[in-house]
Amino acid sequence: MNEYDVVVVGGGAAGLSAALVLTRARRRVAVIDAGRPRNAPAAHMHGYLSRDGMPPADFLAAGRAEIKGYGGELLDGTVTAITPRSAGFRVGLASGGVIGTRRVLVATGLRDEIPAIPGLADRWGRDVLHCPYCHGFEVRDRPLGVLGGSPETVRHALLIRQWSADVTFFAHTHELSNDDRQRLKARDIRVVEGVVTRLIIEGDRLAGIELDRASVVAPYALFVRPRLVPTDALLTGLGAVLTDERTGRTTVPGVWAAGNAVDPRAQVITAAGAGSAAAIDINADLVEEDVRDALPFSAAQERQVAALVNRLPL
């Protein structure tokens, strides 16, 4: 069984940033990634200083190359279980393999749960968008739509108004209150009533939105507020709960968490920073353990060891 100082579960921005810091600290590190990045449908990522507009796949490839350059190991696979042992953890893989490690960082991200409207998933990350900070500038001053469904979607529409003066709110399943209507009207956001039944696609573009009562010409892009579902089964399986947002420490000693798995609203640059901070804290914790292991036994410890060896009463 291979042994590591740290196993990083998840090879996104948080996991790769942590691995970079730890490999540069001369720790033996393995990054295990299932190969399903959340932002894969997007053509470009934004808001990351010096990497603005970079394709997500290129960003990950560059990060992986840097980690390999410092001796880190990148393993393709899915972690199915993390089990405590006397000196660290056993990390079980879907392939049946098992890896030993002193510390674990869980950076498994999240998934976007979107409404089951025909055509919506096919356009996700293209002209069906979720984050105005990620995509708003690229569709600025265009006719934009916002899919309703909850009170949060009204706030989403008011936010997106910052990028365009031509915004339409498709109420969908959300029953607007008088206050909602006044706030939308105050910002010149049109309201279209009716349940959205499907998106009309023509020539690989969003061409229309069909409702249960009519069809309307589509906006240039449709913003949808997804339900953010953390991929945190490994953490819950351990009973691990985040206790320190600054360092990523959890209630389980030896287990850290970073990125969207514990902070659903973290963008790429934020997740990368969280991974870096967790890595520094993990290395400090390993240093403390290395010091304890290097200290000479006290007289009491020596007597305990002798008693165990000789099976004598203490």
Verbal overview:
The protein is α/β, with parallel strands linked by helices. The chain has 2 domains: 3-111 and 228-294, FAD/NAD(P)-binding domain; 115-223, 3-Layer(bba) Sandwich (FAD/NAD(P)-binding domain). The chain has 8 helices and 19 strands. It has helices at residues 13-24, 56-69, 132-135, 151-160, 178-186, 233-238, 268-294, 299-310, and strands at residues 3-9, 29-33, 73-76, 79-85, 88-93, 98-106, 110-113, 128-129, 144-147, 167-170, 190-192, 196-202, 205-211, 215-217, 221-223, 227-230, 242-244, 249-250, 255-257. Strands 1, 2, 3, 4, 5, 6 and 19 form a 7-stranded mixed beta sheet that branches. It has a 5-stranded parallel beta sheet with strand order 8-15-9-10-11, covered by helices on one side. Strands 12-13-14 form a 3-stranded antiparallel beta sheet, with no helix packed on it. The model has no long low-confidence stretch (mean pLDDT 93).
Shape: elongated
Structural class: alpha/beta
- Quote the CATH topology of the largest domain: FAD/NAD(P)-binding domain
**Amount of helix:** 25-40%
- How many domains make up the 3D coordinates? 2
